[in-house]
Every structure is written in C-alpha cells, then in structure tokens.
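Quick sanity check, Mitochondrial DNA replication protein yhm2:
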Amino acid sequence: MSAFDARTAPVVQPKKLEKKPIKFSNLLLGAGLNMFEVTTLGQPLEVIKTTMAANRTDSFAGALRRIWQRGGVLGYYQGLIPWAWIEASTKGAVLLFVASEAEYYAKSFGASDFVGGISGGMVGGIAQAYATMGFCTCMKTVEITQHKLAAAGVKPPSTFQTFMNIYRKEGIRGINRGVNAVAIRQTTNWGSRFGLSRLAETAIRRATGKDEGQKLGSFEKILASGLGGGLSAWNQPIEVIRVEMQSKTEDPNRPKNLTVGKTLRYIYSQNGVKGLYRGVTPRIGLGVWQTICMVALGDMAKEAVEKLTGDKVTAKH
C-alpha cells in the first residue's frame, strides 16, 4: 500500500461497549419460561432424579414405582407448590440481572462475547443458588424424601409445618442446607449449557453451510439447545451430593454436619462411583428440557415480544 493509500484508508473504530438495560418485560419473560418449564416436564423429571439420587439402589423403573405408590400422578409433582413455583418465578429474574451485569464487566475487561457469555452464566448461576434456590431445593428435597414417615404409618407434616420445624431446630443454616453444592451445580450447569449450546450451534452452521452469525431455524436451535442441555449432565455427582445433604432419610452410618467433601466420601463408601451418577438419565432429560425452554424457546419468545412491541428485548437466559 502506498503512503497516499495509507493516509486515505478509513480508520475502523472499535465497537463501543454498551451496557444493556434490564427491562421489566425481560424479567417477566424469564419467570414465565421458568414457570412453563417446571410445570410441564420439569418437576416430574426433578422428582424422578431426586428419588434415584436419594435411593441409590433403585433402578429407573423402581423409582417410577416408588413415586407412583407415594401419590399416583400427583406424586410426580410433589414439591411443585409452593417451592418449585417460588424458585421458578424468582431464579430467572436473578439470573437475568446478575448475568447481564457480570457479562458487561467481563467484556469491559476485554473478554470476548463467548467468554463474557459463559462468565455471565456462571456468576448468575451462583447468585441464583444463594439468593433463592438454596432454600427452595432444600424444601423440595425434604418433601420428596420424607415419604418413609408415611411408609411407617406416620402422617408427614404439611409443607409449612416442615419448613417451620427445620427453621426452629436449625435456623437459616438448616433451611439452606446443601446450598454450597447447589452453587457448584448452578455455576457448572449454566457455564456448560451456554458454552456447549453455542458450540453445537457452530457445528450445525458448519454442517448446513451457514455463515457465522447467521440465524438458525427453529428445529436447529432446539437441537443445539438439547445437545447442550443433555451434555451438561456431566456434573451429576454434584447433584447427588446436594440431594444427600438435603435428604431427610435417616441413616446411622451417615456423618453428622455434612459438608460437600464428607458427603462425597460417604456416597462413594456406600455405593461406589455408580452411586455418584444415580439419576443421571432423568437429569439428562431435565437438562435437555430446561435448555430448550430457556435458550431455544427463549429466543423465539424474545423475537415474538420484539415484533409485538417494536422494541429489542435483551433478555439473557
């Protein structure tokens, strides 16, 4: 290039980083998608997964029979009201707000879109755990695992009696038992789901000959989200540890004052490596359904809201 060409060549300015506003419509969208997910397939898969993780000698069919004997069809929705609904209606808003802030600051320090997105998802997942999910997952697990009382002929206490009994005996710490395991699960969940879904989208674009950044069709989006969600079940041992820490099943061999490390050693000593992966099949199904709802259906919902309002929705799942 000549000196003249160099002087006259246009200077490309770097794209200015803009902080995206958090909109009320985004919060409603996140809460609505979470409520849809948990009320359809989410809670039944959660109950199956938790039952298998708590009863690690049960087969998949055995867990289904155990749940059916506990309450028929309604047994699969145990813990839905109010804990799963409270969790679903709040965790989406928490994830949206915190993840958006974390992504902005990550990019302001020079992170790429990919790294910024994963960073936002991980920080948002941690915030979900400590702000709202800790006590909700604890109470859901308590309700699902206290069925032995009924089997012994003792009528289990109601939802709020259970909550108050734990609070009176153990305080806030008891209500949030297992929250550290929930935090580890959430940060690895959302980091994996965002990252693996985006990698699957890239692979689908290459396979179909689409350019980078070109929009995927609805089926392609659902396929990418399903792959990302299913593969994110690699962290199932953390989920089994969380269930054991929150379980009300009595076992004289179980250590008192469980930590993540103590629980890991206890499960391994009782059930080996297989015990750490109990419930992985329904967990894969749950991960696929959650990610389809929050990534694929979320993108479609955002586009629909955008068309209706004429405003660009900047929600992050």
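Posting the structure with no commentary besides this: The mean pLDDT is 78.
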